[in-house]
Amino acid sequence: MKTRRLTAIFVFAAGIAAVSCGGDDDRTLTRVFSGPPWSGDERNTYRLVDEGGDIYGACVLETDVDAEPGRTRLNRLCANEPLYRDDGTVVVESGTLVPIESSRTRSDAENDKRVVLTSRYDPPLVRFEFDDNGDVRRTERELPEPSERSPEPGYYDDESLLWLVRGIPLEEGYEASYENVSAATGQTFTVDVRVEGMETVKVPAGDFQAWKVRITAAAATQYAWVEAEGAHRLVKARIAGIEDVIYELTSSE
After folding, report:
1. How many CB atoms are closer than 10 A to CB 11?
2. Predicted model pTM
3. Which end of the chain has the lower number of beta carbons within 10 A, N or C?
């Protein structure tokens, strides 16, 4: 396993920061999440692979459906031990994935650095806090509200993306837009999703028939492959950033 920083393991932050300035057009926003395909707690483990096929980290995605009454906690725990970690968690409404609060902690033991990003939702606002080794900055942004064009606008926290794609209508040609809320950039921006079709995907956990989902925002395009049957587990994902990172499912509990 290569020892290097986890520079691109999550989600839109690196690719969007330079080009996004909040809600940017008049596309129709919808609640793309139709419902949770999981029926209980989960723990799915992934290896992180670069474009050359080298393994340089691992991630665990945990779903805690009974974290609080009516609320589910989603944990993303990623590491290149022993030096670098990038962990995120978001609490959402169980049936809708509408976010309540989220946090992301990036730590670099080699340079004794720790950054904590938080988002607290108080519609129609989301409040961001960026804590860089005690240097704290705060800002807030407006969340989308119902309009004639978007009567039921959807917004979701960046940390929930790898669960969100599991609960969209998985049928070829489905496409829609929602608002992504990113504490890493302190911005909200429109994301387009499209189900491109079904493919056979080979990962360490086995061979799967999976729906290929394209996720696009400004200049950044990600891909997720979602298991066609059962709980629609995330089988594979390609996350764009400074360099692309590929998630590959290795085991499930």
Report:
1. 28
2. 0.91
3. C
